[in-house]
């Protein structure tokens, strides 16, 4: 009986070579490329949804543009960081006090810079602290506090003590610690594409406070 | 009955035919395999070029258009982001604003409405966001004091922190803490 040769013929070898060539050179890289592109497509589709959501949030919020603009202007105007503004503020306090027949017994002011971790490269906030000791009638001193609370600058009454004077029952002493805030604006450009608009939520307490300034 | 099969062909010839058939079918299988691989390669190429690539182009184009749309709203985004940054910096300080004038006016309602002699000697801003009030009364009626203050919708809470009796002046000294509602 004739034996079949176990040595592959040239044709067989050629077929094996071609099959391997097609498999490893065309099919495998193509499959890898298809999976890569499919994954890229999934990521891009997620990006589309994200951007669409962002645009939706922006459009829905666009009615508030003028309000935000007004608040931003209020901050910029009320928080000017110049030495003259500071002295002007001090002079204004003196003039309000004199108009209300209030005597300045003592005054002291100092400046400090407040830097918050993530914000400090965009804005620098400066706090000027005033410590005042005043004397006057109760109603006049309350009016003085009221004027400060409605003042068109970002000022906060940090501490207050209003007590009857030992000298006269109609005279009162007011010890005040007020802080005036100003921004040193160093606005840096940023890509608007990276901003998640729906995550920008303005603190309502500050919004209310700033709207009160006008 | 047993039958005999006679094969008249030469044995070597049969073997040669078998070998030929095996070789032919092997070649046929190989060619088929090559064809199948070629078809798979063509299908994958088609899938990549005409399905995935075109879909990718569409999505990339869509993203480009959406980014242009976002850029057209650049002013709004920059304004709100800057505003948020400024407001976040101010936020911890704004908490100090407790509307002192309003609180003093609310406390003064006691002077007008309390049945009995009442005298307020000091007002102070407390660290917990309340107004501290020290007052002197001849006849003490805590319920009445609380009722007068809490009848105002703006007043959230009233705490009596301390009551002392001054034997010399025959008066009670009361230390109150008044809180306004958060909306104020």
Observed structural traits:
heterodimer; A: 214 residues; alpha+beta; Alpha-Beta Plaits; 2 domains; four-stranded antiparallel beta sheet; 4 strands; B: 184 residues; Gyrase A, domain 2; 4 helices; 58% helix; rod-shaped
Description:
- The complex is a heterodimer of chains A (214) and B (184).
- Chain A is α+β, with helices and mostly antiparallel strands and 214 residues long.
- Chain A has 2 domains: 10-62; 79-192 and 199-212, Alpha-Beta Plaits (2-Layer Sandwich).
- Chain A is built from 5 helices and 4 strands.
- Chain B folds into 2 domains: 10-95; 100-180, Gyrase A, domain 2 (2-Layer Sandwich).
- Helix content of chain B is 58%, strand content 20%.
- Chain B is built from 4 helices and 4 strands; from the N terminus they run H-H-H-E-E-H-E-E.
- Chain B has a 4-stranded antiparallel beta sheet with strand order 1-2-4-3, covered by helices on one side.
- In chain B, a hairpin with a 4-residue loop joins strand 3 and strand 4 (171-180).
- The radius of gyration of chain B is 48 Å and the shape is rod-shaped.
- The mean pLDDT of chain B is 87.
- Chains A and B meet through helix 1, helix 2, strand 2, helix 4 and strand 3 of A and helix 1, helix 2, helix 3 and strand 1 of B.
- Strand 3 of chain A pairs antiparallel with strand 1 of chain B, so a sheet runs across the interface.
């Amino acid at each position: 009986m004739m034996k079949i040769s176990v040595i592959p013929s040239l044709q067989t070898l050629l077929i094996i070579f071609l099959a391997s060539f097609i498999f490893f050179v065309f099919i495998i890289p193509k499959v890898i490329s298809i999976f890569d592109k499919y994954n890229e497509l999934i990521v891009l589709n997620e990006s589309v949804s994200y951007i669409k959501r962002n645009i939706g949030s922006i459009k829905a919020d666009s009615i508030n543009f003028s309000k935000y603009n007004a608040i931003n202007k209020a901050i910029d105007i009320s928080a000017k960081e110049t030495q003259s503004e500071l002295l002007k503020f001090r002079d204004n306090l003196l003039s309000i006090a004199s108009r209300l027949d209030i005597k300045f017994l003592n005054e002291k002011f100092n400046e400090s810079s407040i830097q918050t971790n993530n914000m400090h490269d965009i804005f620098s906030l400066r706090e000027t602290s005033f410590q005042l000791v005043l004397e006057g009638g109760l109603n006049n001193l309350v009016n003085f506090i009221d004027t400060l609370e409605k003042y068109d600058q970002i000022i906060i009454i940090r501490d207050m003590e209003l007590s009857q004077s030992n000298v006269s029952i109609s005279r009162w002493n007011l010890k005040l610690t007020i802080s005036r805030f100003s921004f040193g604006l160093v606005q840096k450009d940023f890509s608007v594409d990276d901003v998640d608009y729906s995550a920008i939520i303005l603190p309502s307490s500050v919004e209310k406070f700033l709207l009160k300034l006008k | 009955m047993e039958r005999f099969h006679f094969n008249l062909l030469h044995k070597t010839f049969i073997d040669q035919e078998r070998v030929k058939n095996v070789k032919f079918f092997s070649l046929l299988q190989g060619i088929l395999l090559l064809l199948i691989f070629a078809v798979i390669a063509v299908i994958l190429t088609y899938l990549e070029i005409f399905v995935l690539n075109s879909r990718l182009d569409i999505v990339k184009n869509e993203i480009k258009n959406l980014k242009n749309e976002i850029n057209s709203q650049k002013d709004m985004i920059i304004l709100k982001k800057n505003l948020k940054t400024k407001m976040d910096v101010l936020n911890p300080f704004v908490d100090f604003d407790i509307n002192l004038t309003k609180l003093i006016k609310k406390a003064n309602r006691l002077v007008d409405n309390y049945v009995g002699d009442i005298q307020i000697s000091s007002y102070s801003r407390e660290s917990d966001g309340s107004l501290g009030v020290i007052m002197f009364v001849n006849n003490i009626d805590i319920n009445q004091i609380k009722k007068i203050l809490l009848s105002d919708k703006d007043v959230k809470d009233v705490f009596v922190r301390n009551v002392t009796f001054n034997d010399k002046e025959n008066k009670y000294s009361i230390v109150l803490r008044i809180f306004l509602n958060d909306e104020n």
